[in-house]
């Protein structure tokens, strides 16, 4: 499957408010980010058309990067932000093939990692995560919970609890916060998510 074409199609055929993962205000992510590093540099992996970047800029965060495999999603967000888009670094890349050129204080990912159902792809993601963070950096991940959906956007997913994610990331990352969330989709159904926060050791 052409992963990039799949996600470009998803963001081209539907508006940002018509996809299941849409959040008007990503409150839990914002709270965990603020607790981890109030003004540190941040990369939002799979940020796509998320409104997280809007809220981060509004809060005054100066060093923000958004990475997504879909250029269509990034184009949509940049158009929404207008002039403010110039304050963000934009990267169009497949996270399983990407080699970071720098490190960030916060790595945030809401709903990318759970699409990586095969071990080699997960290992490639974790290699990028490790290269993009240094000791003391925060890693905030959100995936479908064990009772969450088995598929999303027509693709299979891997579901996780906090302990599962801690085991998968390994001893380089210390779990310090976790939460469960019942996300309500734009059409009123609910999806169970696991949120975790790690500190790179």
Entry summary:
The chain has 201 residues and is of the alpha/beta class. The protein has helices at 3-13, 27-36, 52-58, 71-81, 119-131, 162-169; strands at residues 42-45, 64-68, 88-92, 104-110, 133-144, 151-152, 155-156, 173-184, 190-200.
Low-confidence stretches: none
Strand element count: 9
Ends: how far apart?
36 Å
Chain-averaged pLDDT: 93
Question: Which CATH architecture?
Answer: 3-Layer(aba) Sandwich
What is the CATH T-level topology? Rossmann fold
Given the C-alpha coordinates, what overall shape results?
globular
Number of helices: 6
Strand content: 25-35%
What profile does the largest beta sheet have? 7 strands, mixed
Report Rg: 16 Å
Count of domain modules: 1
Give the spatial strand order of the biggest sheet: 3-2-1-4-5-9-8
What structural class do you assign from the helix and strand content?
alpha/beta
Task: State the helicity in percent bands.
Answer: 25-40%
Taken in chain order, the helices and strands follow as HHEHEHEEHEEEHEE
Give the CATH H-level superfamily.
Answer: Vaccinia Virus protein VP39
- Report the top-level CATH class: Alpha Beta
List the helices and strands and how they pair.
Layout: H1 3-13, H2 27-36, E1 42-45, H3 52-58, E2 64-68, H4 71-81, E3 88-92, E4 104-110, H5 119-131, E5 133-144, E6 151-152, E7 155-156, H6 162-169, E8 173-184, E9 190-200
Parallel strand pairs: 1-2, 1-4, 2-3, 4-5
Antiparallel strand pairs: 5-9, 6-7, 8-9
Helix pairs in contact: 1-4
